[in-house]
Amino acid sequence: MARIRFPILFRGGSLRAWYSTKAISFVPACPPLDSVEVDKLHELVGRAKKLFVITGAGLSTESGIPDYRSEGVGLYSRTQRRPIQHAEFLRSALARQRYWARNFAGWPQFSSYQPNSAHLALKKCEVLDKLHWLVTQNVDALHSKAGSQRLTELHGCTYRVVCLGCGAQLSRSHFQDQLLQLNPSWNEEAQEVAPDGDVHLSEEQVKHFHVPDCSTCGGILKPDVTFFGDTVQRDKVNFILQRLAEADAVLVAGSSLQVYSGYRFLLAANERRLPIAIVNIGPTRADHLAWIKLNARCGEVLPFIWPV
Fold first, then answer.
1. pLDDT at residue 84 in the model
2. Where's the Deacetylase sirtuin-type domain (predicted)?
């Protein structure tokens, strides 16, 4: 299936008006921006002609989506909730029922999130032909909504649903309609939405929820994302490594790189002796590889470099 296209949203003052009124509840505290460090970052990426960028959940917190690991405000530090494991989804019909009920309840809010100034700055970098390739660990489609084209969604995207039997794909919005038709009287209120669109519901709330099988082969339907405990497809990894081999600098924005699927690209960049810059609130797994590290908000730093 071709990548889902979204209208490019928020231009100029409209973004600033939206951002000024948006409650940023999931962005951890960070020190004031150091203009000297920003200038160093600007110089590093300014020299690059083929910039390779990796983004993570810290880029989307400023759009109102919580991350997992941030101290004090991340989902792990505030709740006992954990994302579903790949093996659990495959082996248990009850786990799939619970997952889709919660995802169904959270989808209206999750699908309403919009790109922030950091997403738009990276799109501007692409428009200026400075960005060679963008790899995101996020599954929220905010880069696509911002208009990014040179993009690989490393862990997939929640806006697509795939059959594990025949490989058929459908849009998440179409699947939402199917779920609504099967559950016309089911009306449970969603609580806080997780980074993958999940919400918390009790077992009692989900036990009467109905989930369709694939209309083509009767197989299991799953969001087109890499669940925890699963691995990224090798051909996707190889494609990204090829784009990295063509790059002349690397920028990490909003990722702690704790998951190896993203960290491996920093190891490869270091082997190639590429300059590496990191913008993230808090430590990352690759800080020892960075030429420049800014402990700052992506939405504050990136628009300095690529104004939107």
1. 80
2. 31-308
65: its two tokens: 């989506």
Distance CA 43, CA 31 (A): 21
Q: 117-127 and 13-21 helices cross at what angle (nearest 10)?
A: 160
Residue 72, marked binder:
yes
149 shares a domain with 204: no
Greatest Cα pair distance in the chain:
59
69 marked as part of a ligand binding site: yes
20 is in an annotated binding site: no
pLDDT < 70: residue spans in the chain: 1-24, 67-82, 188-200
Annotated catalytic residues are: 155
β-pairing, 169-171 vs 156-163, is antiparallel
The predicted structure's pLDDT at residue 247 = 98
CATH number of the CATH domain containing 180: 3.30.1600.10
Whether residue 2 lies inside any domain: the answer is: no
**What is the secondary structure of 156-183 as a DSSP string?**
EEEEEEEETTT--EEEHHHHHHHHHHH-
Q: Is residue 16 part of a domain?
A: no
Q: Is 173 annotated as a binding residue?
A: no
Strands 169-171, 151-153: pairing is unpaired
181 and 84 in a single domain? The answer is: yes
- Measured from the Cβ of residue 169, the count of other Cβ atoms closer than 10 Å reads 13
Three-state secondary-structure class, residue 202:
coil
pLDDT at 14 (0 to 100) = 39
Q: Helices 298-305 and 35-47 sit at what angle, rounded to 10 degrees? A: 50
The reply to whether 280 sits in an annotated binding site is: yes
HSE at residue 172, side-chain half, CA atoms within 13 A, is 24
Q: Is 219 annotated as a binding residue?
A: no
The pTM for the full model equals: 0.87
Burial (0-12, 13-18, 19+ Cβ within 10 Å), 139:
buried
Q: Are residues 40 and 147 in the same domain?
A: yes
29 found inside a domain:
no
